Amino acid sequence: MEASAAAEKKPQLTGPLGGLPWDITIDILGRLPAKSVFRCRGVCKAWRDITIDPGFLAARSHCWPADVVLYKYEYRTVASDDGGNDTVAVDVALDLLPVSSDEETRPRRLIRYANRHAWFLLVASSNGVLLFRKEEGLYLLCNPVTRQWAELPRLPPRPPHLKHNKAMVDAECAFYLHSNSGEYRVLCRRNSSIKETTWWILAAGAAKPRRIDMGAAAEVVAKVAPCLRTAVAMHVALDGRLHWPPHQAAAVAGETEMVVFDVSLETFHLMAGPPTTTAALTKVFDMDGRLVAADFGKEEHIDLWFLEDYKNRRWELRHRVEVPLMDDAIMQQVWTQGGTARPTLEPRSLLSVAAAGDGEAGNIMLGNYRWLVVYNVKTKTTKTVDSVVKLWGKDVLVSRHVFKENLEKHACFTTAEQCSVDLSSFHFQ
């Protein structure tokens, strides 16, 4: 009875489409691009009610494919002080490439902003919201689909005698959506003194930051969590927990550990990672609700470890993806620089390596600007994304960030004009 009553309250279309069941209606509308969905809201009240319904927004978010974020640097020639010309990067553009891309898929523009001295640094992405850092202590959230912004509360000012101490810096360690409250949060670590570390939660819509007590044991684990600005691989949100890529366990060679943050308890713990000897070259991602680790430690192939049993921490090597030889034109350029036919990765180079999954289609995107492939776990086939590889040498970089469109208008977000920060350099596509 209660389920039937709830179903009756769902908004329904009228006219020729009025007889469509709710699930079919949201399935059809959920496959439309964001701009088309926004246009539907202007058709009539029934269409608007459906496209703002929480059930529709959740269903679309679940089925909408993930995109890998690309950096595109745009240059301009300007007059130099000595009378000549200089080429400078004036803009940074963020482009999106679907995880399920084929050979000819072209990246699409998401946002462009000025690359000036006071430029904004993209730090992380979570549930369709980007986290930017402008300067120490100033963090901004942006939903580029709804074009909304939010400024996070700032940490308390430092004591005067520590203000200019370079060792005393704030580090943002995690960015995530807290599902129970609907808040976007940043977990920050502050070195308050040489011996003291404090932890803070910066939540969108909150008036001030909230300090949390990690406890001595959890704080030791927490120190392994890297700063988002310098991390070569991002954490993954799954089942109310954030998971960081594995690191080598101190006890036994070949055993790894992963740092985990419980967003409800707000504490850290360790869990067993995949059994690999190249943990420093491993990235993790979510594949249809399952944790997957991509090990880039071998030159010829990438190992894909799946966490088959979360409770018992049982990992299984399910797939081995061959790393393709590079395009002839790119290979020629690499050889002139002393490189090889297959790129050798170092831990730091993972900063520009993609590892992302599209659970519904069974596709996984792996690689960088020299070689980029889409591997399908269902057919066990691999295809190259030549449209990106052909951009090699044209100031396009594959990033570590993954983006999924979010059509929800957040209550605590505002327009760019209402923000206290000048956002006139940002241009949406």
| CATH class annotation of the largest domain | Mainly Beta
Oligomer: single chain
**What's the alpha carbon Rg, rounded to whole Å?**
23 Å
Class by helix and strand content?
Answer: mainly beta
CATH architecture of the largest domain: 6 Propeller
Give the helix proportion (percent range): 10-25%
The biggest beta sheet is recorded as: 5 strands, antiparallel
SS summary, helix count: 8
> What is the 3D shape?
globular
CATH topology of the largest domain: Neuraminidase
Overall pLDDT, averaged?
84
Main sheet strand line-up: 25-1-2-3-26
Protein name: F-box domain-containing protein
Domain F-box: 20-60
Pfam families: F-box-like, FBA_3
InterPro entries: F-box-assoc_dom_typ3 (IPR013187), F-box-assoc_interact_dom (IPR017451), F-box-like_dom_sf (IPR036047), F-box_dom (IPR001810), SCF_F-box_component (IPR050796)
Blueprint (SSEs and pairs):
Elements: H1 2-8, H2 22-30, H3 34-40, H4 45-52, H5 54-63, E1 67-79, E2 85-98, E3 108-114, E4 121-126, E5 129-135, E6 138-143, E7 148-151, E8 170-178, E9 183-191, E10 197-203, E11 210-212, H6 216-222, E12 236-238, E13 241-243, E14 247-248, E15 256-262, E16 267-272, E17 282-286, E18 291-295, E19 301-309, E20 314-322, H7 328-336, E21 354-358, E22 363-367, E23 372-376, E24 381-384, H8 386-389, E25 396-403, E26 427-428
Antiparallel strand pairs: 1-2, 1-25, 2-3, 3-26, 4-5, 5-6, 6-7, 8-9, 9-10, 10-11, 12-13, 13-15, 14-15, 15-16, 17-18, 18-19, 19-20, 21-22, 22-23, 23-24
